[in-house]
Amino acid sequence: MLSYLDTQNTLHTRMVDFTLQEYLFVTQVVLGEDIRVAYANIYDEAEFKRNIPSEDEEEYLAKFKRDAEILLEQQSCRQLREYLEQEYRSDIQDKASTLEDYRFTGAEVQRLLNNLLHERSQELSEASVRDILALIKSMYDSGALDSGDSFQSHFITIPKKYDILCPQCSREGYAVEGLDFRCQHCGCVAKWSESERRYFPNLNHL
Description:
Blueprint: H1 4-13, H2 20-30, H3 35-43, H4 45-51, H5 57-62, H6 65-73, H7 75-96, E1 104-105, H8 106-120, H9 126-142, E2 145-146, E3 161-165, E4 172-176, E5 181-182, E6 189-193, E7 198-202
Parallel strand pairs: 1-2
Antiparallel strand pairs: 3-4, 5-6, 6-7
């Protein structure tokens, strides 16, 4: 969980100081709020309540876009934002570590992963890819994935291929598991047995 006092104490040791208003503003931005709304809500509270909602709200909010961008570029707010984003991600990952307590549908997993990939698309690192794959594997192993919807239709099974020597002409070829083999050179056929999961040659001279 995000904590103002913990954040203040931690960043103070790094020589980063910020006001309560800056903390509330940056926290809203980290949680996904429009920077104009976050800025006006904190720094123009009285007028914000009068103009939101109203027919003129877009015109009202537009006045704060530049000020909000400038504030976010200040060194203290930049470091505050980086710290809060890191703490927020850590909190989410800690809660997600007990996946056996939850069940997700395939559609929910898709939405979560799409949002995560979108968030990190500008700075996608090798570590973040490993995190995503580890999350999917953890959810699959724990049975937290509910595949009873269209999500499962996105997966296809690729059968195994075997390199073989034709038992009749001894030339190389390949066979696909589950399908009969026919040599492209001599036409020799080997039948696939599903029960024994192996090929049985059907030689002309036998």
